[in-house]
């Protein structure tokens, strides 16, 4: 799908259209109309973000406050969103809005009856301004509960242009070329890849890109829904492909043992930090934020990316992730919370974080010019242009016990596989046993 560049509506006009306001300056208007209609109210928001992400999201919340008069309070939950939010609900202290980072958690919340369906105004905006796939991932049993405000492009491989120039390699077009280029980089004095094995979620992303390209979107969807068993030969094949990388000590900085002791920020540091140890790091577009903010790299010059290459005879994958805004039904100020969500659906809200950096929006109406650099514009365009061929992070679609919990399920089993990738079939069987239990529960 080709993306049509649009000009951002500004001020009252944009929000009146997006939020269903009746007028600007006269009569009642909904959130964002600039009339301070929510003055004196406070909206509490819970999400996983911390550090620079939390600071940048606060800029969006501040813009909402400027428009509506509503104060906001953000609570960082850490990785275990479902546990933290569940305890707050049980304690009678539910936040108004939760930024849910996993489809599986959104589905879990909906099935427990915790979520409020989105307002007609929000639904109308999402239908008009987002590819249908984002509506699908925000819905449970045909009811739309979640707005995907922040997206991630998880099919990007980040590299040091200096390392590539030194090795005499160019960005590869296939997985086999990727491994070949990696050996060439290694021969020039650096390891090929920094792998963040300490964080199990990064390993799930490796698997998902390979599986989507190698097995195709239909099997990807079936595996994500556990309609296809993890012991299926297609899973064994993808693990075998991934194992070629994992077991090659020439390709991984410090080998498997060091990879298992390297977290995500550490993997970026090994490529873009003061003492480079590797030429490439695979992860989402958010690598750029770490490379720039922590190590001062100029994106596009000192750090660049190429699309995750096609595997076998498949097409290049586009795997995404994202944070969906939902409103809790039992929240003390759910009505104002829904107004915040309606604001987040506008290109104006997305533009606030786009200008700050470290952000992608699936909103088709956000002008690419709002992004701060050409590399981010390229990743954003790739994500939006992919339309309904985008597939959401598979582990994020699974129950949290299988796809989203440290030390258990898919995260742990893929860490075990990184430690010893010699038996893909046995790993597939263990994954199936863990998945079967999680989906049953």
TrEMBL record:
Entry keywords, A to Z: Signal, Transport
Span of the signal peptide: 1-23
Protein name: ABC transporter substrate-binding protein
Family from the record: Belongs to the bacterial solute-binding protein 1 family.
Domain of life from the UniProt record: Bacteria
InterPro entries in the cross-refs: Bact_solute-bd_prot1, SBP
Native organism taxonomy: Bacteria, Bacillati, Actinomycetota, Actinomycetes, Kitasatosporales
């Amino acid at each position: 799908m080709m993306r049509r560049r649009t000009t951002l509506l500004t001020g009252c006009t944009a929000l009146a259209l997006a939020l269903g306001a009746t007028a600007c300056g006269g009569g009642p208007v909904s959130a964002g109309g600039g009339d301070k209609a929510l003055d004196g109210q406070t909206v509490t928001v819970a999400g996983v973000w911390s550090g620079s992400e939390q600071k940048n999201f606060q800029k969006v919340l501040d813009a909402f406050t400027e428009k509506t008069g509503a104060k906001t309070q953000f609570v960082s939950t850490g990785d275990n969103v479902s546990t933290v939010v569940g305890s707050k609900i049980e304690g009678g202290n539910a936040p108004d809005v939760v930024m849910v980072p996993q489809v599986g958690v959104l589905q879990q919340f909906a099935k427990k009856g915790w979520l409020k369906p989105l307002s007609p105004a929000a639904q109308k905006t999402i239908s008009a301004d987002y590819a249908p796939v984002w509506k699908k991932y925000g819905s449970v049993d045909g009811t739309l509960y979640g707005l995907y405000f922040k997206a991630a492009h998880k099919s990007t491989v980040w590299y040091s242009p200096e390392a590539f120039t030194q090795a005499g390699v160019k960005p590869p077009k296939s997985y086999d070329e990727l491994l070949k280029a990696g050996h060439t980089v290694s021969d020039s004095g650096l390891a090929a890849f920094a792998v963040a094995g300490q964080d199990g979620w990064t390993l799930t992303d490796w698997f998902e890109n390979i599986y989507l390209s190698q097995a195709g979107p239909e099997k990807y969807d079936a595996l994500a829904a556990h309609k296809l068993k993890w012991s299926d030969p297609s899973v064994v094949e993808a693990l075998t492909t991934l194992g070629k990388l994992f077991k090659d000590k020439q390709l991984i900085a410090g080998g498997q043992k060091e990879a298992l002791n390297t977290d995500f920020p550490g993997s970026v540091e090994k490529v873009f930090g003061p003492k480079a140890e590797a030429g490439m790091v695979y992860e989402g577009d958010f690598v750029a934020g770490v490379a720039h903010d922590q190590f001062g790299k100029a994106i596009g010059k000192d750090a660049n990316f190429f699309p995750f290459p096609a595997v076998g005879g498949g097409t290049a994958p586009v795997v995404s992730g994202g944070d969906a805004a939902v409103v809790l039904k039992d929240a003390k100020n759910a009505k104002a919370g829904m107004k915040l969500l309606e604001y987040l659906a506008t290109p104006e809200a997305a533009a606030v974080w786009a200008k700050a950096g470290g952000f992608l929006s699936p909103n088709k109406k956000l002008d690419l010019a709002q992004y701060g650099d050409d590399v981010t514009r390229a990743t954003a365009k790739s994500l939006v242009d992919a339309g309904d061929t985008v597939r959401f992070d598979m582990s994020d679609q699974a129950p949290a016990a299988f796809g989203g919990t440290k030390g258990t399920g898919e995260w742990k089993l893929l860490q075990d596989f990184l430690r010893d990738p010699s038996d893909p079939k046995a790993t597939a069987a263990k994954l199936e046993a863990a998945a079967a239990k999680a989906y049953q529960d």
